[in-house]
Amino acid sequence: MAKLLISGGAIATNDDRQTVIDRGYVIVEDQWIVAVGSGSPPTDTYDRTLDATGMLVIPGLINAHTHLCMVYGRSLGSDRALLHWLSDAQVPLMRAFELPDYALSMELGAIENIKAGNTTLCEIFFSPHYDQGADEVAVESLARTGIRTFFFRGSNDESFFDGFVENRQDILRRSKNLIRKWHPSHRIQIGVGPLVPWGSTAEAFMDAVALSQAENVLIHLHTSETPAYNQLVRQRTGKSNVEMLADVGALSDRVMLNHCVHLSDRDIQLIAEGRASVIHDPTSNMILASGVAPIPQLQQAGIPLGLACDGPACNNTQDMFQTMKDAALLQKVTTRQADALIAPQVFSMATRGNAQALGMGNCLGAVQTGFLADLTLVNLQSPHLTPAHDPIATLVYSARGADVSAVVVGGRVVMENRILQTVCEADILEKAQQRTKAVRQKANL
Q1: Is the pTM of this model over 0.85?
Q2: Using CA atoms, how far apart are residues 131 and 53, in angstroms rounded to an integer?
Q3: C-alpha torsion sign, points 379, 385, 389, 390
């Protein structure tokens, strides 16, 4: 059983008391934290050590909603609203993919997440190449990088863009195959969910609910992202997006609702009654001019809240530090209340809130004994982080993904001194640049 020691740094434990240790240590055995303390560590034999002097050790950040399958489209089609951004740029690019592009996009996106201090990501995957096994290629590539992954296989059975629609039988068969192939893995978990609420039949939603229950997997759903989303759902069903989900049984504690920007009071009540979680994507909501999620009202309703970057094509980064800051500032400026969303709350959303949404609130998102050893070391020795009077406020309002020095996932050091330990970053960057150019030419963009 491998034994890892991290010592010499400050520790933001993120435990129930928000304990901060000025100088301490973390001991890891296999994939679990077995000791957290202050001062010098016990004298013992360790298989590996990380010197955290001058650093802040925090629970690994969780990016609870992204689309690494769209990373080739970063900055393509900028300054358009969501549906035009998709139709004019992103969908034509994705149609031109070949299977190796799914491997590269996952690896490139995972590298970016790891280097930003994200130890877990939720990939909301969709593809016009499911018949070629694009989802299987993607999961295998993510597994190589060492990042903890919740891979949600997105699908639509009725309408979306040409080539992105599957029939219900294929959705179920392919989803089951993927789930059962990866079910024994603790670091890679598979989930399901219709990709957009206006592109699937009620029966497809009910299929996803039944599959979630039968296979004990999560559901992840784009929800009330834009007024156009709600209008399209209402035209089809006569109900709001959330009301439609309630009707098909897709509101429960195994459901993650993403965005939730345009909600009525009744929608919020239904989400709270169903005990679903809401994942907030402030940066992409601003970039795509989608609107501002009613975070204070969701908090007041007792709805579990998480946080995410959204995809690297609709956010342009996977930096959860920026996302935490954006989340806090967006609520402050729209409510004109400085305490509408404060630093400890957004840090909790990015860690324990996301862990709860993933059904792992009892073992992920804190630096404490008995929790998974998913850890991020932030180098505080920079002008923009000096002085650091309040460690959490410093993380939220001053830190950047580039300040991350080392990352541990499940007890395994996947980055040290900003060098990836699992895959060759330079090789992947070069190949991704070449393939992006070729795919863009093929798509006539």
Answers
A1: yes
A2: 50
A3: negative
